[in-house]
Amino acid sequence: MNFVSTRIITADVKRLVAFYETVTGTKLMLYTEDFAELVTQAGTLAIGSTRTLRLFGGDHVASPAENRTAIIEFRVADVDEEYRRLAESLGEALVQAPTTMPWGNRSLLFRDPDGNLVNFFTPVTAEAIRKFER
């Protein structure tokens, strides 16, 4: 088995595409007005409109902008540099400025326009760095 992607369902694909392009500095592939992807070496973040839910059994299978459990995580080269780059544009979306976590990652936590938590992190301890050497 191989983990491939996480999909966010949204009522506004263009808004989320613009947000993720800004924070990642990467152009997303917009396949249709209802579906886009941010493809990375480790996996894909997919963005689907609420209209795509009809293909998965109906509008009731997911509710956009109601996530309160998952965190979308991106390993970055220098989380402090990313914070300096994004601090002004994040505004009220900022949840936590860069902080070193007990498990050895330095973490920046913020919300996307739909309220999903996003974590940019950089492993900083020897153990955390080894963990991500693949």
Can you give keywords for this protein?
134 residues; alpha/beta; four-stranded mixed β-sheet; 3 helices; 8 strands
Set out the fold topology.
Layout: E1 5-10, H1 13-24, E2 29-32, E3 35-39, E4 44-49, E5 71-75, H2 79-90, E6 94-100, E7 105-111, E8 117-123, H3 126-131
Parallel strand pairs: 1-4, 5-8
Antiparallel strand pairs: 2-3, 3-4, 6-7, 7-8
Structure, briefly:
This protein is an alpha/beta fold and 134 residues long.
Task: Provide structural commentary.
The chain has 134 residues and is an alpha/beta fold. It has helices at 13-24, 79-90, 126-131, and strands at residues 5-10, 29-32, 35-39, 44-49, 71-75, 94-100, 105-111, 117-123. The protein has a 4-stranded mixed beta sheet, with helices on one face. The protein has a 4-stranded mixed beta sheet with strand order 5-8-7-6. A hairpin with a 4-residue loop joins β3 (35-39) and β4. The longest helix has 12 residues, at 13-24.
